[in-house]
Amino acid sequence: MSMSFEAYMRDMVQPMREELTRIGVTELRTPEEVSEALDNMKGTALIVVNSVCGCAAGQCRPGVAKALQHEVKPDHLYTVFAGQDKEATAKAREYFAPYPPSSPSIALMKDGQLVHFIPRHQVEDRSAEMIGNDLIGAFETHCK
């Protein structure tokens, strides 16, 4: 019995996807879903560019989970998965200018404008608690 690489990767990344979806983050899997969610968006949205890397597992996803326990949080919660849903990720990254592609990364948008961004280099060098606190500060500033 042989398994295709794509099926293997789907099975391997499912728990990584579920770390965010089980706390209320909606996956955007196609460019159309990204456009539908972010074009003409009103209010605030957190967009997490998820990844299979260790810093996504150790710092990014736990930091997001910590921040989402705070009473003030964005109106909308989204994620795209770099390396898996490539077209959706590329589309989401169009909204993050002037920042170059980075995964994992975390964006906060308000009324369609990027107001806070945490690129990979600010994920891999900080703890989940530091990332969570950074996001909480951004939520307090932009989501009230």
Blueprint (SSEs and pairs):
Elements: H1 5-21, E1 26-27, H2 31-38, E2 44-50, H3 54-67, E3 76-81, H4 86-93, E4 105-110, E5 113-118, H5 120-123, H6 128-142
Helix pairs in contact: 2-4, 3-6
Family: Belongs to the bacilliredoxin family.
Protein name: Putative bacilliredoxin, YphP/YqiW family
Pfam families: Disulph_isomer
3D structure, described in words:
By secondary structure, this protein is of the alpha/beta class. It is built from six helices and five strands; from the N terminus they run αβαβαβαββαα. Strand 4 and strand 5 form a beta hairpin. Helix 2 (about 30-40) runs parallel beside helix 4 (about 85-95) and helix 3 crosses helix 6. The model has no long low-confidence stretch (mean pLDDT about 95). Belongs to the bacilliredoxin family. InterPro entries: BrxB/BrxA.
